[in-house]
Amino acid sequence: MTLDVLLSALGAQVVEPGETANPAYLKDWASRCPVTPLAVVRPRSVEEVSRTLEICNEHGLPVVPQGGRTGLAGGAQPLADGVVICLDRMNGAPEIDGQGRVARVQAGVTLEQVQQAAEAQGLLFAVDIGSRGSCEIGGMIATNAGGMRAFRYGMMRQNVLGLEAVLPDGTVVSAMNGFLKNNTGYDLKQLFIGAEGTLGVVTGAVLRLHPAQPARVTALLRVENLARAQQVLDALSLRLPGLSICEVMWPDYYYFASGFRGFDPLPDSADGLTLLIEAEGQEEAGLRGDLQTALEYLFEKELVLDGAISQSLRQTEEFWALRSANEGLNQAFSSIVNFDISLHPEIGDAVVARLNDRLAAASHQLRCLWLGHLGDMNLHLGVVRSSGSEIGPECEALIVDAVITTVLDAGGTISAEHGIGAFKVDYVPKLRSEAEQALSRTLRRALDPKGIMNPGRLF
Amino acid sequence: MTLDVLLSALGAQVVEPGETANPAYLKDWASRCPVTPLAVVRPRSVEEVSRTLEICNEHGLPVVPQGGRTGLAGGAQPLADGVVICLDRMNGAPEIDGQGRVARVQAGVTLEQVQQAAEAQGLLFAVDIGSRGSCEIGGMIATNAGGMRAFRYGMMRQNVLGLEAVLPDGTVVSAMNGFLKNNTGYDLKQLFIGAEGTLGVVTGAVLRLHPAQPARVTALLRVENLARAQQVLDALSLRLPGLSICEVMWPDYYYFASGFRGFDPLPDSADGLTLLIEAEGQEEAGLRGDLQTALEYLFEKELVLDGAISQSLRQTEEFWALRSANEGLNQAFSSIVNFDISLHPEIGDAVVARLNDRLAAASHQLRCLWLGHLGDMNLHLGVVRSSGSEIGPECEALIVDAVITTVLDAGGTISAEHGIGAFKVDYVPKLRSEAEQALSRTLRRALDPKGIMNPGRLF
Ligand SMILES: Cc1cc2nc3c(=O)[nH]c(=O)nc-3n(C[C@H](O)[C@H](O)[C@H](O)COP(=O)(O)OP(=O)(O)OC[C@H]3O[C@@H](n4cnc5c(N)ncnc54)[C@H](O)[C@@H]3O)c2cc1C
Ligand SMILES: Cc1cc2nc3c(=O)[nH]c(=O)nc-3n(C[C@H](O)[C@H](O)[C@H](O)COP(=O)(O)OP(=O)(O)OC[C@H]3O[C@@H](n4cnc5c(N)ncnc54)[C@H](O)[C@@H]3O)c2cc1C
């Protein structure tokens, strides 16, 4: 019935019944099985988004916004009794304002599109995540995506200056501010950033850009443990102002990655953590010199065990391939249980060791593959079976319980950047106080009184 | 009556009737006349804040939160029929977590206290504003204070990781997150940042700290106009990664400042804008060398007309004294009409020229003293009479109208960092769309259904 209303209001170009929709829309990256919604709506304009929401709101129909469906918390997975509203057609070329250092974009453009458009004008859009080819600005805003450069440039929240969103009742709220400073009342865009599609549909944004640095140098370092890695980072951030990447890989992950890629740039040094670092600057020679000097300092202070500065583009690609080898985990292991945590730096080594021990004690086949964004102590853990075989539901439950209780007991968080989505809803009461939850409900009710937006997700 | 309830609940130590209260609490920095409220409440704990709000809410009594009362929009000025709740007693020593790089503070600590506590551990709290000795963290959060380092480190919003606030009904919402990444639902702290005391009382915060750089070099540069200044900044930000200050002063302001201070470090060069720049780094010699090289580049490209690198601490203080001479404007002129605007860089020169002309045409005695934070194109304008004499109400109205219409016509904003407060409420409909205003009202009603928090302020 509502399907007919949607169809007659928006046309068959925009509204596709769930049964006949392209299967790509029926599943997001991390969810297991496709779900067929009543309809998949793919609006071409903010007016069509508004009309869609208005109709769904009138009929009390659940709405699931979709960006690139690369989310890792199941938040863009369709609901069987609801409508998917996918922004992928709202992807006009980003408008770059070189003087004002901003990009004006529609929500459906991919991260890569924005990065390339900025680069073409000597500018940088600083948020970078592995899913760049598919994830969309709307989805990145809705999840407050973080990634590797967040310790330097911030997450999406710090890189969105203005925003356009459609409220559940169809009202278009345009707050396309382009200024770094504009204190003129509530900063409404903040509501929609990180709200995982529960307060409205993001349709456009003004993104902050930075001047791009043409030169870059990359290195791999081996350090004893996380505490040392932290000291290395501290020393580097003071000595290498252009430092923009500092990723950390634990031995089990590194063995996997170097095996998977078929090379190991640090074969001689003993066990330890591997850091991938990168600095940006005006010209390569100077930058390389600064990095060299900084590394000499690190060796002299015995903070690093081994290290290699990339000498060629090819070698740089190799260093990076080790870091991105996590994308190959799905090939190598038939199941992986993934976690995304933040920890206080002081207890990082202890928590990692505790978890490795706890899971090994549960089953000697379990292996913890740790890697992370060191600058914000955001660690990603993938638990696999060393045989590569499937992890059964019971064992998975055990792993999840072990990781989550250990991290929470240590005062950490179990969603640093991937969000709560559908998967982590049950843990919210452990993460947020009663007063925070009550205030969150108040907000949600105020903006979405009928509760149509992504129900059951976030909380 | 309510006064008695407050007194009996909180005691005479905490609740002072307005008539006998210290006059300091009856006026904020920019408001003209003192206003006597029913009571001045100075709680010593979050529980006392909660109890106060609970009582005021029950009795529908307006509440005005006060920090250091240095706000420039009149938002902390008492209301005659209301209660002032001043946080100045909640000023325990900041707790610095060196490893986690955060400061945990009560809302009543001054900016200077936080800066000093951080510095003592080799860390930097990066927001810096001229009122540092008096303004308090709670007030800075409520106004989303910006200042000189915002182009590099962000405003308060980007430097607050966690927050504790008391809602109008007395509920304490503690969201004292200390992580850079923690995507676990709505980021509730954002509600209170920049809300100017209309959604609750901020009682505590977790602030982000950065590693402090021990060395610093300072320079004054003379450039032809704002467009050139922008090119200079672009060149410097690529060549001097430690660049942390870039303030701009227009000729009329500079003449005043050098006259007021009694020295002029750039006496020989022709008319133009003066930039105060500063870069931070690990050691002074290297930094000085980098600055020297960068300046050579600027001269070679004919981007600057003149320049001087400070050679001593004394000279650095002199350079800075020119920038802070604006604090002496009140002595030199019996009235000043102040503005705080953001403009798109491309039109900066044109708007400044247009306004200078427009006001000169209105009265040849009017002089525009412009200075600003170049990195975010946040300009401060003080309009004075060259004779130093009073600006009458009619003339003031004319000035305000000229500046505001010119800036809005040019697509600028008339409150970059000082906020709306009581003074700019009438302009909100020109700054925000109907949908934004409606959503703002929805939010305010949801959190403060009885409308007790700073009524009449913000909107
Ligand atoms: C290989 C890989 C690497 C990754 N690396 C990172 C990383 O480093 N850091 C990181 O933070 N994440 C990472 N992710 C996760 C993911 O890419 C991000 O969460 C991304 O921001 C999701 O964008 P999307 O467009 O795919 O959103 P989707 O998955 O489509 O949606 C995500 C959520 O946002 C909502 N939503 C989507 N679009 C809108 C809209 N327009 N308006 C309102 N709500 C909307 C959805 O309902 C859902 O709840 C990675 C994922 C993969 C597959
Ligand atoms: C010399 C000078 C230089 C300045 N330079 C700058 C500058 O560069 N950049 C800039 O942004 N500002 C500047 N200001 C303005 C001012 O210092 C800032 O707005 C500052 O953040 C106000 O802090 P405060 O504690 O004095 O707040 P107050 O003036 O006491 O209050 C300001 C507003 O916040 C509310 N409020 C105060 N405390 C709380 C609380 N705990 N909870 C909820 N609401 C609260 C008040 O109700 C009021 O609406 C300057 C002011 C002066 C006098």
TrEMBL record, chains A, B:
Signal peptide annotation: none
UniProt entry keywords in alphabetical sequence: FAD, Flavoprotein, Oxidoreductase
Statement: the UniProt record of this protein carries the keyword Flavoprotein: yes
One Pfam family of this chain: FAD_binding_4
Record has Zinc-finger as a keyword: no
Essential cofactor(s): FAD
Domain named FAD-binding PCMH-type: residues: 33-212
UniProt family annotation: Belongs to the FAD-binding oxidoreductase/transferase type 4 family.
Protein's recorded name: FAD-binding oxidoreductase
